[in-house]
Specification:
Elements lengths: L7 E4 L2 E4 H15 L3 H8 L3 H13 L7 E4 L5 H10 L8 E5 L2 H10 L7 E4 L12 E7 L8 H11 E12 L5 H23 L2 H13 L3 H10 L3 E8 L4 E7 L2
The protein binds S-adenosylmethionine.
S-adenosylmethionine binds next to helix 1 and helix 4.
Length: 251
């Protein structure tokens, strides 16, 4: 997130210069890229699969749709989109777009031989696509890493065609009081320790936990989406608000 003057951004609990954030985020993901998928399963105890499936249930990708998955990492969401579309390369473009080359490389290795996914490196704040080129835009566990999320939202709206749909799956605010303490203990104590032990990279997982806490809660993100010009904005909580899916339409 950035401050009102766009001069600083959050990097976990630290405030840094806005232009410093992208290289630091890139550093985090370059360092975890080769272990990202396995760590994702371990850290979320497999729950990220359920959350991504729920995203697909809401999105219901249709054959022929052009879909852009921003901050798409190793292609988890893009692959699910393809499966829901019926898996044919003929049925629209599905593009994985990410800042970190190492994440895209890990995805390309993972889906070696698949010609139905395209991989493009770049920044969500400046998408190299024409106005109105996509039917759907997804961003999963990505927006909180972006330096200027308001710019990323404006870009999302720009590249969607009128009637196109935006979906953001992201960690959010726990709404079940009973869950709060357990979740705090798990995320602040166990997660960085596990990251250190299993991936040898405690700092990256400390960043993960802190970045979650600095991300705007459900209603604030809805407001940011409206400010970016999205219509019919709504969200659904999952796992007591640990994560939420936000949806908006390019009207
Ligand atoms: C936590 S991973 C999520 C990967 C994937 N979407 C998933 O759900 O498994 C966050 C991804 O966001 C990417 N990212 C961070 N900042 C970005 C930006 N400004 N533009 C595009 N991608 C970005 C990182 O490189 C990383 O691959």
């Amino acid at each position: 997130m950035t401050d009102r003057n766009d001069r600083t951004a959050h990097f976990g609990f630290r405030d840094i210069g806005v232009d410093e954030k992208a290289p630091m985020v890139q550093g985090v993901f370059e360092s975890v890229a080769s272990r990202y998928d396995i760590m994702n399963d371990l850290m979320s105890m497999g729950a990220h699969r359920f959350w991504k499936d729920a995203l697909m249930d809401w999105m219901r990708p249709r054959a022929g749709e052009h879909c852009l998955d921003v901050a798409g990492g190793t292609g988890d969401v893009a692959d699910r989109i393809r499966q829901r579309q019926g898996g044919s390369a003929a049925s629209g473009r599905v593009l994985v777009f990410d800042l970190t080359e190492g994440m895209l490389r890990a995805g390309q290795e993972r889906f070696q031989g698949r010609d139905d996914l395209q991989w493009v490196c770049g920044n969500a704040e400046a998408l190299p696509f024409e106005d109105g080129s996509f039917d759907a835009y997804t961003i999963s566990f990505g927006l909180r890493n972006v330096s200027r999320p308001d710019l990323a939202l404006a870009e999302a709206r720009r590249v969607l065609r009128p009637g196109g749909r935006f979906f953001c799956l992201e960690f959010s605010r726990v709404v079940l009081p009973i869950l709060k303490d357990i979740y705090d203990q798990y995320s602040f104590k166990l997660l960085p320790t596990l990251g250190g032990l299993v991936a040898g990279d405690r700092d990256s997982y400390q960043y993960l936990v802190e970045s979650i806490r600095r991300f705007p809660p459900q209603e604030q993100l809805e407001e940011m989406m409206r400010e970016a010009g999205f219509g019919r904005v709504s969200h659904r909580n999952m796992s007591g608000g640990i994560v939420a899916v936000h949806n908006g339409w390019r009207i």
